[in-house]
Structure formats: C-alpha cells, structure tokens
Design goal:
The complex is a heterodimer of chains A (140) and B (117). Chain A has 140 residues and is of the alpha+beta class. Chain A has one domain: Histidine kinase-like ATPase, C-terminal domain (Heat Shock Protein 90). Chain A contains five helices and five strands. Chain A has a five-stranded antiparallel beta sheet with strand order 1-2-3-5-4, covered by helices on one side. Chain A is globular. With 117 residues, chain B is of the alpha/beta class. Helices cover 37% and strands 19% of the residues of chain B. A six-stranded mixed beta sheet of chain B has the order 1-5-4-3-2-6, with helices on both faces. In chain B, helix 3 runs parallel beside helix 4 (78-87). Chain B is globular, with a radius of gyration of 12 Å. The chains are: A alpha+beta (140), B alpha/beta (117).
Chain lengths: 140, 117
C-alpha cells in the first residue's frame, strides 16, 4: 500500500451527509489493514474537520494521501477564514451558532480534537479567502 | 453485558439490531455533545445520548461504538437508521432519563471507559 490518493467534495450545509468522506477514508484504511488505533485517529481528526467545513465554510474539498508510513489529510475551503487561529485552537472557544450546538457540535473542541489525534497539524487561513488545514497521522 | 441485557435493563425498544443482541458490550459513555464523545472516549462500545440526528450514528461509527441507546424516549430518524443499518450499529430507545439510564447500567456492572479526563 503506497501512494493512494483520494479526493472528496464536502457539501456545505448538508448535515446528513457530513462525515461521509471520513467514512470512506476509514473504510479504505481498514481495508488496507492499517493499525486500528491509527485508523481511528485519522477518522476522528478528518471527521471533526469535515464537520467544521460544513458548519463554518459552506463545504470544501478534502484530499487524502495514504502512504506506508503516514496519512496526510488536506481540508481546503473558501469560507470566511479564521481571524485568530490561536484563539480558535483554545478548548471551548467557538463561533458556532446555537443551532449547531443543538446538533451536538460547536463546543469549541473540534480544532483541539484534530490536533490531539494527529502528529502534525497546520492551519493556513486568510479572512475572506478561506482556510486550509493540513494534518498528518504517522503509521509507524 | 450483551446488548440484549442493556435492552432489558433500560426497558428499551429496539429500532435496529435484533441480530446484534448477542454482541458483548464492555463499557459505556453518555453525552449529548458529540465532540465530547470524540475527545474523551476510548474503546467504548455503548453510547448513551439524548441527541437524535445522523451525526450521533456517524460519531459512533468513528469510535467503533456498537450500540446507541437513546434516552428520554427519543426515536431515531430514518436517516439515523439508514446509517446504522449500513454500519451495523444497534439503535435502541428508552423512556428513562440519561442519569437514570446510566445508573441502572452501572449498577448492573457496565463500566465507564474513562472515569476522569
């Protein structure tokens, strides 16, 4: 297993389909026999990111590169951008509306969760242009 | 504890998973916030929640959870059941409130995965 590349369009404001890209990646990793702990890390980090894109950015694109030693996930959107990344990374900080909290998200734990479950995480964001989150989970 | 015993303990209705009743459940967690489940839960097998939307099932799937017990008489939506069937995650519903449901299961020996953060 090396050099597998997957791409997904993440539909914005579709709460029902949110998570389907992460589901596909999880299935693929399981099929490839990747260590279950690493599979779960990738699944959770990507799922939180996917939910963020649906909630905050009107969707976006997800690309995943699976290699023998790591999984790289890039989530790119053309949403409003993050004005203060350090603040957004704080546990409990959220700009999600109450309607999203009622759905079980928006507790300000998405980005911290993504960082917690990945070995590398980088956020590039420009207000009014969009956000790209790059995450890497090592497989060994 | 098998899912069947959870159903009996919570006097629950099975919405999906009759064929999963013999699956062994070793631990449980309870939350209405899915990010909480994603942040703190490890190796859980039962999710107790009063939240009722498709992301509860997606979250359970990401965490390899095998059974969702809805409390406060919540009924799963068609969207939830469709994902549950696909992922083979049992969905049951109980009229008990969350605190009581947790207490009943704890008293029967079902352990939490992590008691503290």
């Amino acid at each position: 297993m090396s050099g597998l590349h997957l791409e997904f369009d993440v539909a914005g404001n579709n709460f029902v389909s949110a998570g389907s890209a992460s589901d596909e990646v999880k299935k693929t990793l399981k099929m490839l026999g990747v260590d279950p702990v690493a599979v779960r890390k990738v699944a959770i980090a990507m799922y939180e990111g996917e939910i963020n894109m649906v909630i905050h950015a009107g969707g976006g694109k997800a690309s995943v590169d699976i290699d023998t030693d790591k999984v790289k996930i890039v989530l790119a959107d053309e949403g409003p951008g993050i004005p203060d990344i350090a603040l957004a990374m704080k546990d409990g900080y959220s700009t999600a509306p109450d309607a999203i909290r009622d759905l079980g998200f928006g507790a300000g734990m998405g980005l911290p969760n993504m960082k917690k479950y990945t070995d590398e995480m980088k956020i590039d964001s420009t207000v009014g242009v969009g956000t790209t989150v790059t995450m890497v989970v090592n497989l060994r | 504890m098998k899912i069947k015993e959870i159903v009996d303990t919570l006097e629950a209705t099975v919405y999906y998973g009759e064929e999963l009743m013999d699956v062994d459940i070793h631990s449980a967690c309870a939350s209405d916030m899915m990010s909480d489940v994603l942040a703190f839960v490890k190796d859980q097998a039962l999710l107790i929640s009063g939240l009722c939307n498709p992301q509860v099932v997606r979250t359970a799937d990401m965490m390899d959870i095998r059974c969702i017990a809805l409390v406060r008489g919540k009924q799963p939506t068609d969207d939830m059941l469709a994902i549950a069937r696909q992922k083979e995650i049992a969905i049951i519903s109980s009229d008990y409130r969350m605190y009581t449901a947790c207490g009943l299961l704890y008293a029967r020996g079902l352990q939490p995965g992590d008691s503290k953060v």
